[in-house]
Amino acid sequence: MADPGRPHLASSRDHLLDVAERHFAARGYAAVTIKDIAGELGIRQPSIYYHVPGGKEDLYVEVMLRHFERHRAGAVEALAGAGQPVEERLRRLAGWMLSRPPLDVGRLVNSDYPELAPGALARLEPEFQRCIFGPIEQAFRDAESMGRMRVREAATLARVFLSLIEPLNAARKYWERRHSEAEVIAGVLDIFFYGVLARREGE
């Protein structure tokens, strides 16, 4: 039976995670304090420990695990469509990625992760690999099984793809006045699949 004294406990926890995610995404793990999050929520700092007894690090881990899983679910949906050409599936994935705030993988790996205890990293890293790269790797394996691609290493291809798409959101103001999102995605995917060197006739 729900505690009548806490009718909004679940929604309060979700709101806490939403606010914490916004702070961590904007400023990174080290720069954010429990005081910052409590201040935006309009509550006392000890109230946060009711939801997350482990404090800031546990809050960050929970926020990121939720964030990773949301990314995975969206990526899987974008890539859905058995028999669809891999170009079309990746075009849909790129469009979905650009509809969301950037992952900022560089800061995550180079700034946030070094601040965490080994136990926290042990929880995050496998889910990061599964949720962020797993769906993309599977799309490449599917394309190879259909004879559409030659895949030497799906993990490397997934990381190259992400490194091409993710910065587009951060650099949006530099291209959106001259090109549509669809044009930019098409250009990036053309480079990804076919490269930039002109082929000579007969090669």
Structure explained in plain terms:
Residues 1-10 have low confidence and may be disordered. This protein is mainly alpha-helical and 203 residues long. The chain is built from ten helices and no strands. It has helices at residues 9-27, 34-41, 45-51, 56-79, 86-98, 105-112, 118-145, 154-170, 172-175, 181-194.
Features:
203 residues; mainly alpha; 10 helices; 0% strand; disordered N terminus
What's the topology here?
Elements: H1 9-27, H2 34-41, H3 45-51, H4 56-79, H5 86-98, H6 105-112, H7 118-145, H8 154-170, H9 172-175, H10 181-194
Helix pairs in contact: 1-2, 1-4, 4-5, 4-7, 5-10, 7-8, 8-10
Label the structural class.
mainly alpha
Order of helices and strands: HHHHHHHHHH
| Gyration radius, rounded | 20 Å
Tally of contiguous helical segments:
10
* Overall 3D shape: elongated
Mean pLDDT, to the nearest integer, reads 88
Flag low-confidence runs.
1-10
Main beta sheet: none
Gap from first CA to last CA = 72 Å
How many DSSP E strands? 0
Q: Which range does the strand content fall in?
A: under 5%
Q: Helix fraction?
A: 55-70%
In short:
This protein is mostly helical and 203 residues long. It contains ten helices and no strands. α4 (56-79) packs parallel to α7 (118-145), α7 packs across α8 (154-170) and α8 (154-170) runs antiparallel to α10.
